[in-house]
Every structure is written in structure tokens, then in C-alpha cells.
Amino acid sequence: MCRAGQRTMGQIFHGSRISNIEITDTLFGGYLTLVAEKIVPYQWNILNGKVAGAKISHCMENFRIAAGEREGQHSGVVFGDTDAYKWLETVAYCIANGKGAGLEPLADTLIELIGRAQESDGYLNTYYTIDHPSEKWTNLAEGHELYNAGHLIEAAVAYYRATGKTALLDIAVKCADLICRIFGADGEKPDGCPGHPEIELALIKLRDATQNDAYLGMARHFVRVRGASPNYLLDELERLADNRIFPEFVDYDAKYAQTHLPPVEQTSAEGHAVRAMYLYSAMADLAAVCEDADLAAACAVLWDNVTRKKMYITGGIGASAYLERFTADYDLPNDRMYCESCASVGLMMFGQRMASLTGKAAFYDEVERALCNTVLGGVAMTGDRYFYVNPLEVWPPNCLPSTSMAHVKPVRQKWFDVACCPTNIARTLASLGQYIYAENDEALYVNMLISSRILTELNGGTLTVTVDSTFMRDGRVNISVSSDRPQKIRVRIPRYFANPHFASSVAFPEPGADGYTELSAPGGTHTFCLQGEVTPAFFASNEQVRADAGRLALVMGPYVYCLEEADNGGNLANIFVKPETEIEVGRSCEDIPGSLPLLHFGGERVTKAIEEDGDLYGTPLFRRTGTRLTAVPYGLWNNRTPGEMTVWLKALL
Ligand code: FUB
Ligand code: ZN
Q1: What pLDDT was estimated at residue 14?
Q2: Reduced to 3 states, what is the DSSP secondary structure of residue 436?
Q3: Is the CB of 274 under 6 A from ligand 1?
Q4: Cross-strand pairs, 22
Q5: Higher confidence at residue 583 or residue 13?
Q6: Alpha helix locations (H) across 132-196?
């Protein structure tokens, strides 16, 4: 039995409606403004091919051609349409945040164009409409039709919720209805499973918005047929022989798209990292909505495998640049990894859903890790440059084109041929409120201690909660609650928030087994002054992580810190630090947004390693000098003079 999107006991809703939330935090509030004022206009220009010197996006042009308003062929990647959909989704969140009213006319124009590009039966995909109309639905492994539809649906639901307008929702419904007609379990229809998961989680959202259970059934079906034998996607690729889209799919295996086993039987994260995250997110949704214990158990095992064996300290995932995929447990190289921004967005999505499914706060440790480090790191403070790949160690001269390091860019880029990440980062930052707050019938949940305000309705009353957080400076978080009746506010106390107590002498309620501390607001206005200790500390990796053996990473709160050449000079590989080194919490840097403190500490720099001057190898002769080092938050690196960077430092043991 699958429940509609009602709130149920013990179950936390994904997140609160973001239109009720204002983010006041210096860092994240700043990014939300940046998204509305800079990123969205910049990306609009990009999608219209109007930014000089950037990789050319053919996104809008493809829609115009598909609509019959221009002559030409489809250009760019098969999933290029999704850049427009994620742009629209971002605009929807900006409008919901109260920052995007000026963007609405532009968005409406695009929605009209998308409507004109849609075929009469609901089909919508510019690649197939323009150049391959006879090949629709024949290459689910590579063609991305269902993936594109998923992003269309997500945008449509977001835009409908933000504006109440139904034009995009109507387009999405028409497309979803076509998909429901084409695929399904009635024996007449193909058992095809999506080559890139995304449609599943989108259909669940669409069911929530329309109350049409057919979409939930379709999402369930797509998860059920995955991993069935014979393998639909492998058979399809074999059938296609030379008529393939991606040359690298010569190495396509069942694990790549998580079709090696039925999802419910999968126990380790395999294959393409973004595909995996989107699939697991849908599995967690279905486990919750359909009360499917087996699916919930599989999600828990997969989550553990990712976060305990395959995740970087920065919340990056996907170690192999080749095929953008997971590799072996503990294989976490720092300089040639992948860590696609979208994969960390996906980790946030999966973690949010796991918290919702289980009611446990700890999932937000990793959501926050991904957000504060890799996702933030994916965008420049100017909003017009992006990382697709997020290295933990960069030596710019070896990031050479036409080598195995070509994927690692030492500076953020204006755009990409495959440009999934910039719009994904934008929609995630713009919808941050849904990650901060969640609600069920019992309580309001504060999942991240980010300064913000929510106005909502709970237990038949109105409730305003204001979080005023300066914990990175002084360990303080004030939570003010105004309500017309008693209410419960359940606050995640993060691992890094040590010795939590109230600033007054009132006893602090210990967090429960679920990791939440319950604050009982009596009604009226009441402020809880939380005080904790947030201090910087060095972390090491499990000894199975070869790449980090004998190394230290500096962490404060949810932020991983790194050394940049701009503060510490070059050749950072020659820096050594004692684990017991005292760390000084310094001032913030004016050139870096958010007022986060810089961290300073002493280390040793090897200035000579061999006796023989200029030789490549020689007799060991280590000379070292003391050096004062400055670390900056990794999520904000590369916002000043470019150069070397490293997260992991060698330990002087
Ligand atoms: O295939 C669509 C998107 O393009 C994936 O999610 C990214 O990894 C990139 O390959
Ligand atoms: Zn991406």
C-alpha cells in the first residue's frame, strides 16, 4: 500500500516548503542572492550562446529548432535540454525565496518555447524530435529520454509550487502520461528501464503535486524492472551495434547503470555515481511512501557503503574519471579523482531522503558535508565559473589537456560541453531551505544550524522559528520560537557541536537515539540559547585509504579546510604537520565570502631532500624549516590567485 504525500507519525517530510523560509546566514544567504542575481542571468546567457569564450551551449537553439522556428540540426549532448529544465527549477526556487520575481517573465517565455517544442502526443526531447524521430525509445541506455523527462517534471513541480502557474506542469503531465502509456507492466509494453535514473524520483514528486497514483506506479515499475534478467540495457546496446551515441560505452557493464542486480538486492555502490545517487534517492522515496521494508534495508546498506567506504572527506563521490564511476572500497585518490559536483548534489538528495525515511538526524552529517565542501566548491563566489570535477589536491602544471589529468581543471570554468553541474548546483543552493527544515505531524525539525527563519503551520497553529547561528565563531546558536500554542522543535545536534548546553542554567535535553534534541516551546515567544564548542581538529583516514596514509586533514564544524598556494607558497606536497599542532582560529578573509575563520598553524617545509643538487634521485638529506600555514575552507577555495591546493597534509609522526 502506497500512501499519498500525507504526513505520517514518526516520518519526517522531505523538507518544508521553501516559500516559507528565509535564509539570513551570511554565507548561504549570500549564495542565494548570488543565484538569483548573478547565476541565473549568467546561465540564461550561456544557454542562449551569448557568453564569449565559453563552451557553446545549444540548449535554447535546440528547442527553437524542435519547435520548427529555426532550421538546423540538433547540437550538443543528448541531455542538453535538462540545462533549461534545471535553470527553470532554479528560477522557481528563487521565486519561492522571494528573490526571483523579475525572472518570471523570462521563465514564462522559455516555458512557452518548450511547449511549442513538445510533440502532440506529449513527446519532448529535442535530440530525437529534430534528428532521430524514428529512433525514439530505442536506446534507453544512452538516449536519456527518461532522464530528460525527469528533469522536466522536477522543474514543472517546482514552478507550479512557486507560482501556481500550470503551463509547465501541463507539459510535464502530458509527457509523463505518454511515458505511462509506453512503459509499464502489462506484458505488451517494453520492460525498459531508464539508462540514467532520474525519472523515478521525479514521478514521485509529480504524484505528490497531482495526486495521480499512476505516476507513483510508474516510478515503482521502473525500480522493479531494473536489474531483471535478461538485462534490458545490455541487450539494447548489443542490438544497436554501431549505432551508439557514446564511444566510451564500449566499456559499459551492468554495474555502470546499477542494473547488475535488482535494486533491492544491491549491497554496494557501483557504477556511475550520479546515476547511483538518483536511483537510491528514488528507492528511499518509494521505501517511505510504499512502506517497503526491503527497499528501506537496501537503502541503508547502500548508504553505509557510500559514506563509510567510498566518500571523500569533502563529500565528493565517484573516484574514477573514466565513466565517472565508483571504484573499489577505500579507493580515494586525491589528485586524479572525479568527485563530480552533481554526484555530491545527489548525495545530498539521498541523505535528505534517508533522514526522512528513518527519522534519524545523522544522515544530515553527510548532507552537510557534501553541501559545505564539494557543492559550495563547485561555484565561484562570482557565480560565473564552475567546477565539474572537484579535486582534493591540485598542482596546476600537471592538469594537462590530452593526458589522464585533462579532466582536472585548476580553475573553475565558464561552461562545459557536458554542463550538468552548474545548473544542478544552482537549483540546490536556491532550494537550501528544504534541507534546513523538515516537518511531520509532531514537530518541526531543524536539520542544519544555518541562520534562517521559517513560518509554518503545525498542530493547527502557526509557528515561526528563527535560527541565529554564529557557531563557527563562538559556538552559539539562538533558536527563537513564536507560536500560538505549545510546539516541539527537534534540533539536530551535529557531531562537531561538542558539549551542547543552554547558555542559561536550564538543563539541556540530551539528544535522543535519533540524534535530535527536543525543545519544548511553551507558546508565545521563547528563545533557546544553545551553546556548544566548535573547534578545529585534524582528522586522519581509515588505514585502508592508501591515498591518505600518514596524512591529516583539517576540519572545523562542517567545513573541511585546505592549503592554497596564495597563502602558503607552492610545492605543498613538501609540507609536514604534527597531529598535535595547536590550531589558531583566525579572522575571516575579506576576499572570501561568508566570514568563516581562517585557520593558522605551524608546520615544517622540506626545502632539500637529496644531497646531489639538481639530480632527480640521490642520497636522502632532508632539510626542513618551520613555517606558518594558513588554511581556508575548501568550499571557498580558488576564489583568489589560482595555484596549488591540498586538503590532505603529510603528518610528521
Ligand atoms: O548523463 C547525464 C549527466 O551527464 C550525468 O549525470 C553526468 O555524470 C554527466 O555525465
Ligand atoms: Zn554534473
Answers
A1: 59
A2: helix
A3: yes
A4: 453
A5: 583
A6: 140-143, 145-163, 167-182
- Residue type at 229? S
Is 169's pLDDT higher than 50? yes
Largest CA distance in the chain: 79
For residue 8, pLDDT over 90 is answered with no
| Nearest ligand by distance to the CA of 273 | 1
pLDDT in tens, 338-350: 999 999 999 999 9
For ligand 1, say whether the CB of 421 is within 6 Å of any of its atoms.
Answer: no
Q: Is 324 designated active site? A: yes
Please tell me which residue in 22, 145, 154, 324 is annotated as part of the active site. 324
| Mean pLDDT confidence for 54-70 | 97
* 8 alpha carbon – ligand 1 mean position (Å): 35
Q: How many residues does the chain have?
A: 653
Confidence category of residue 5, pLDDT binned at 50, 70, 90? very low
CA distance 178 to 495: 47
| CB contact at 8 A, 104 and 110 | no
Task: Give the Å distance between the CA of 144 and the centre of ligand 1.
Answer: 10
Identify each DSSP E strand in 327-475 by its residue range: 393-394, 437-439, 444-446, 452-458, 461-469
Ligand 2 midpoint to CA 510 (Å): 40
Q: Reduced to 3 states, what is the DSSP secondary structure of residue 362?
A: coil
Residue-wise pLDDT for 294-306, tens only, equals: 999 999 999 999 9
DSSP for 54-82 reads: SPPP-HHHHHHHHTTSS-----S-TTTHH
User: Measured from the CB, is residue 83 less than 6 Å from ligand 1?
Assistant: no
**Residues contacting residue 146 through CB under 8 Å, at least 6 positions apart:** 140, 179, 194, 195, 196, 198, 199, 222
CATH number of the domain located at residue range(s) 442-533 in this protein: 2.60.40
Residue 324 CA, closest ligand 1 atom number: 8
Nearest CA to ligand 1 atom 8: 274
Q: What is the pLDDT of residue 185?
A: 73
* Residues 139 and 236 sit within 8 Å (Cβ to Cβ): yes
What are the start-end ranges of the E strands in 186-241?
none
Select which of 299, 372, 399, 420 is catalytic: 420
Range list for CATH 2.60.40 in the chain: 442-533
Summarize pLDDT for 382-432 with one digit per residue, the tens. 999 999 999 999 999 999 999 999 999 999 999 999 999 999 999 999 999
Task: Provide the whole-model pTM.
Answer: 0.98
CA of 375 to the centre of ligand 2 (A): 11
Task: State what percent of residues in the chain have pLDDT above 70.
Answer: 98
**Per-residue pLDDT band at 242 (split at 50, 70, 90):** confident
CA of 169 to the centre of ligand 2 (A): 25
Cα 396 to Cα 269, 375, 551, 571, 642, distances in angstroms: 31, 21, 21, 11, 8
- pLDDT confidence tier of residue 150, bands split at 50, 70 and 90: very high
- Mean pLDDT of all residues belonging to the chain: 95
Q: Is 342 in the pocket of ligand 1 (CB under 6 A)?
A: yes
Quick one: pLDDT band at residue 11, thresholds 50, 70, 90? very low
Residue type at position 384:
D
SS3 (DSSP) at 114: helix
Q: Is 368 a catalytic residue?
A: no
Strands 599-610 and 21-23: unpaired
What is the rounded CA–CA span in Å between residue 286 and residue 301? 16
Residue 297, classed as helix, strand or coil, is helix
61 lines ligand 1 (CB under 6 A): no
Q: How far is CA 38 from the centre of its chain?
A: 20
Q: How many angstroms separate the CA atoms of 180 and 206, rounded?
A: 13
